[in-house]
């Protein structure tokens, strides 16, 4: 038999080879991943060209096999810092991948994020959702994408979404996080098409997996979890891994519900390059190398698919290709420092690639900032917000409203009363009691082109969702405008008839300084309509603060300003005019400032939004009046009034006739007893006394 005939015979598939898988492509991608890891560790890290390096050796074969099963353009996957093989399998550009690892311009972050935290809009194929540096933060946005797939199939009639799936990768350490359990609850209670892909390498940095879940096996511990198909096996064995992955994907794609696949894999390098793994015994490390999936992959495909010489040729070709990519990436300059402040918010002419309705061709309807009421009847803020939500839902089938108790109950503040009956359970729905899950789900739905309007019942309850709130706000910036997540986060808070530390907090400064978030804080029904409509039609995430005291207060009632009324962010309102002092407030304090300043010849400014805020109106007023008093309900120390005072001192110091003053809550939580609460919150009498003292200075 001649050599050509022998090679042809060797290339015949063996009985245990799954011929539906392109094994040559799998080998090529795995070898690429291995070569990148090796060259980073031996050349790029020592040369300080790569500063954060996380090897994927041991995880790579199964990840690449998973990527081969993601074929629907609406499929989406979110990994973590050890998921580069998966992204390579989806087709990320090799030069961009290396350029991102080397923190060069362009690529997936323009040098703003660490190179192993990928995002991949991939308009013609499966999406790589923006990864997070926080462990477990990747889970609940994936459930949001999955719910959006169901919504797009049922409500928007998209056939492709009806067979697409959402996949989330996590290590064994991540199964202890709030994000994992939030997402698991969402996916199972709603029967969503989610694949939880758990890579168990038995260590979270140096902490054994037995500290994350009893016995170190999450699949065993979830055996009785309702509504979840569970698969588990050896991620180092290509035959077993490919079979389990195909079964898991098939199960989810056929809409049987979510599936959890746990694959045991070795971590053949430390957590990161700097990790010496001194906490592992020599025997454990030796066992890991015995389970290296690369030799097993080679045994699986040679000689059934590739000859020995073809394998060797591929190794050489991959080495050449990766080195060429590194050379090309090394020639890419560092981003211009002048551009690093771009993409905090949407900028005209710079539309994100994926996420939000604007990226899918939405054009906001014609609007006006002039109120055009059709009736003199005055609505309270609750009714005005509900009317605005209902109108925008009627004209835009991408808007969805959800949160705890927003369905049949209509919300604890009655804002969504009757809306589920009107729009159905797909568009107005209750959620599990998990704020991480509420916000994370909203982020995933926004990535998928919907307009999510999650509600957090009270400001204080947002604290468990701080990680998702941060990730949502920073995603446009850290992905170099590849992704955005424009959600409208409705959040009631502040005092009412009484106070307490749990339901009456404002702490709006936390969101005023949150990167990438706009913040609306209306004081009355008319402004609430205009700012909420601007939020729902906009292209940035918004915190829409609904002050509890103003929801049904007679002062806050206004005629409905019309269905086209939109207020731009960053434009304050002059409530009253005068020449002796400037009062600045927002929310419930506007009403009190107006009453306190009556007859004292002062400007009273309602900022209406804090991010951005109308510094031009404030500064021009202070230049004219020479005095400034800032009043807010939040604590004094590091409250938003400090930012206003600092700006006034910086830019209007020579025009001041008196020190800039602030009147705020003391640095305590809101007291429950009404007498104590009223002693703490700035009152009309306190404001007038402070203003009088300022005028007499």
Task: Break the fold down into its secondary structure elements and pairings.
Elements: H1 3-10, H2 23-44, H3 60-67, E1 76-78, H4 84-90, H5 94-101, E2 127-128, H6 139-155, E3 166-171, H7 178-190, E4 194-200, E5 203-204, E6 207-208, H8 218-221, E7 229-234, H9 238-253, E8 259-264, H10 282-290, H11 293-301, H12 308-330, E9 378-379, H13 381-395, E10 399-403, H14 419-423, E11 428-430, H15 435-447, E12 451-455, H16 466-478, E13 488-493, H17 509-512, E14 518-520, H18 525-537, E15 542-547, E16 558-559, E17 573-576, E18 582-585, H19 588-596, E19 603-606, E20 609-611, H20 615-625, E21 628-635, H21 640-652, E22 661-665, H22 674-680, H23 684-695
Parallel strand pairs: 1-2, 1-3, 3-4, 4-8, 7-8, 10-11, 10-12, 13-15, 14-15, 18-19, 18-21, 21-22
Antiparallel strand pairs: 5-6, 9-16, 14-20, 17-19
Helix pairs in contact: 2-3, 2-4, 2-11, 2-12, 3-4, 3-9, 5-12, 6-7, 6-15, 7-15, 13-18, 15-16, 19-23, 20-21
Structure notes:
This protein is α/β, with parallel strands linked by helices. The chain has 3 domains: 12-333, 3-Layer(aba) Sandwich (Rossmann fold), CATH 3.40.50.970; 358-559, 3-Layer(aba) Sandwich (Rossmann fold), CATH 3.40.50.970; 573-695, Rossmann fold (3-Layer(aba) Sandwich). Helix content is 37%, strand content 13%. The strands form 6 sheets. It has a 6-stranded parallel β-sheet with strand order 2-1-3-4-8-7, with helices on both faces. Residues 1-14 have low confidence and may be disordered.
């Amino acid at each position: 038999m001649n050599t050509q005939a022998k090679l042809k015979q060797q290339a015949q598939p063996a009985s245990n080879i799954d011929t539906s898988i392109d094994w040559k492509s799998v080998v090529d991608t795995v070898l690429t991943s291995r070569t990148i890891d090796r060259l980073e560790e031996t050349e790029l890290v020592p040369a300080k060209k790569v500063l954060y390096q996380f090897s994927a050796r041991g995880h790579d074969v199964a990840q690449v096999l998973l990527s081969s099963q993601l074929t629907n353009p609406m499929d989406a996957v979110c990994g973590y810092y050890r998921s580069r093989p998966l992204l390579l399998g989806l087709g990320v550009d090799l030069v961009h991948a290396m350029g991102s690892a080397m923190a060069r311009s362009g690529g997936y972050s323009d040098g703003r994020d660490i190179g192993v935290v990928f995002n991949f809009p991939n308009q013609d194929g499966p999406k790589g959702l923006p990864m997070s540096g926080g462990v477990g933060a990747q889970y609940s946005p994936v459930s949001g994408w999955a719910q959006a797939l169901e919504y797009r199939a049922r409500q928007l009639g998209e056939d492709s979404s009806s067979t697409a799936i959402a996949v989330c990768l996590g290590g064994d350490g991540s199964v202890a996080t709030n994000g994992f359990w939030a997402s698991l609850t969402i996916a199972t209670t709603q029967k969503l098409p989610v694949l939880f892909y758990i890579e168990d390498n038995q260590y979270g940095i140096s902490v054994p997996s037995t500290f994350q879940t009893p016995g170190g096996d999450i699949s065993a511990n979830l055996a009785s979890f309702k509504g979840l198909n569970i698969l588990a096996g050896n991620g180092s064995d290509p035959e077993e891994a490919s079979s389990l992955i195909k079964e898991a994907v098939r199960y989810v794609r056929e809409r049987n519900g979510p599936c959890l696949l746990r694959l045991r894999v070795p971590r053949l390098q430390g957590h990161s390059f700097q990790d010496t793994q001194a906490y592992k015994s020599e025997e454990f490390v030796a066992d890991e190398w015995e389970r290296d999936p690369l030799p097993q992959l080679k045994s699986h495909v040679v000689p059934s698919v590739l000859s020995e010489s073809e394998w060797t040729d591929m190794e050489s070709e991959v080495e050449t290709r990766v080195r060429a990519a590194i050379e090309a990436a090394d020639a890419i300059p560092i981003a211009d420092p002048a551009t690093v402040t771009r993409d905090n918010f949407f900028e005209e002419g710079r539309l994100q690639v994926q996420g939000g309705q604007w990226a899918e061709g939405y054009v906001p309807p014609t609007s006006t900032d002039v109120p055009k009421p059709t009736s003199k009847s005055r609505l309270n803020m609750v009714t005005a917000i509900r009317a605005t939500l209902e109108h925008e839902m009627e004209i835009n089938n991408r808007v969805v409203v959800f949160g705890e108790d927003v369905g049949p109950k209509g919300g604890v503040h009655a804002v969504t009363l009757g809306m589920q009956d009107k729009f159905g359970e797909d568009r107005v729905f209750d959620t599990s009691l998990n704020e991480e899950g509420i916000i994370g789900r909203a982020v995933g739905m926004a990535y998928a082109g919907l307009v999510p309007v999650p509600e957090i019942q009270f400001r204080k309850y947002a604290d468990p969702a701080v990680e998702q709130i941060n990730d949502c706000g920073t995603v446009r910036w850290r992905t170099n405008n590849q992704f955005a997540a424009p959600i409208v986060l409705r959040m009631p808070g502040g005092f009412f008839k009484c106070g307490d530390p749990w339901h009456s907090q404002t702490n709006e400064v936390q969101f005023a300084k949150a990167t990438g978030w706009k913040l609306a804080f209306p004081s009355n029904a008319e402004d609430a309509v205009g700012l909420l409509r601007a939020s729902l039609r906009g292209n940035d995430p918004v915190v829409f603060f609904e002050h509890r005291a103003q929801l049904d207060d007679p002062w806050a009632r206004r005629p409905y300003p019309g269905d086209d009324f939109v207020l731009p962010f960053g434009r304050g309102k002059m409530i009253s005019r005068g020449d002796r002092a400037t009062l600045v407030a927002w929310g419930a304090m506007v009403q009190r400032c107006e009453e306190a300043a009556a007859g004292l010849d002062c400007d009273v400014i309602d900022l209406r939004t804090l991010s951005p805020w109308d510094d031009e109106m404030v500064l021009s007023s202070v230049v004219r009046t020479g005095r400034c008093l800032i009043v807010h309900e939040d604590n004094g120390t590091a409250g938003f009034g400090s930012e206003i005072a600092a700006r006034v001192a910086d830019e209007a110091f020579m025009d001041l006739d008196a020190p800039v003053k602030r009147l705020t809550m003391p640095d305590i939580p809101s007291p429950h007893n009404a007498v104590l609460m009223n002693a703490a919150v700035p009152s009309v009498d306190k404001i007038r006394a402070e203003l009088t003292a300022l005028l007499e200075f």
